[in-house]
Amino acid sequence: KSEEYAERTGIAELAAMPRALLGEALYYNAEYSEAVRLLEDAIPVVEAVGRLDRASHYADALAMSHAYLGQLDRAHYWLSKAIDFGDRSRDPLSAADAEIAQSMIAALEGDPRGAIEHALHAADAAEGIDEKACAFHARVVAGEQHLLLGEAADAVPPLQRAKKLASD
């Protein structure tokens, strides 16, 4: 309905947020190509209306969609946009989310050390603002990467912390 109303009134902003939400849902549903299509159209409008925190969040999903499609140059482009939006919004959650995306892209690129570094930094930042879900996810990424490196003992602390966060 918002897209129909936006078309009738010529107010693009009315359709941008629902399209971004749908694009994000498609990312979480592993429908990356369709997520890319919707998010690339919506994010500039979300930015233009000043919702930089939301633009950062959607740019994370877009960067990850590109990464899962093997389009790493585009993934890095949108990751840099997510970081920029987060910095400009001064929203600590946006910054932590962007760093989680950065850790996941590093993992996909075969850089487990970089993934661990970014994931642990993001986890600490997320816990500092009481964002348990983000901290949980980041600690799991760090633990997984330690396991991939054959470092079971080093995987235990972040995974134990993730377990504690999940039960809180």
Question: How would you concisely characterize the structure shown here?
Answer:
Helix content is 85%, strand content 0%. The chain is mostly helical.
Content-based structural category: mainly alpha
Query: Biggest sheet, in brief?
Result: none
* Gross geometry: elongated
Helical content stands at over 70%
**What is the element string, with H for helices and E for strands?**
HHHHHHHHH
Question: What value does the Rg take, in angstroms?
Answer: 17 Å
Unreliable segments of 5+ consecutive residues:
none
**Measured distance between first and last alpha carbons:** 39 Å
Number of helices: 9
Number of strands: 0
What integer is the average pLDDT?
94
- How much of the sequence lies in strands comes to under 5%
Verbal overview:
This protein has 168 residues and is an all-alpha fold. Helices cover 85% and strands 0% of the residues. It is built from 9 helices and no strands. Helix 4 packs antiparallel against helix 5 (72-89), helix 7 runs antiparallel to helix 8 and helix 8 (132-148) runs antiparallel to helix 9. It is elongated, with a radius of gyration of 17 Å.
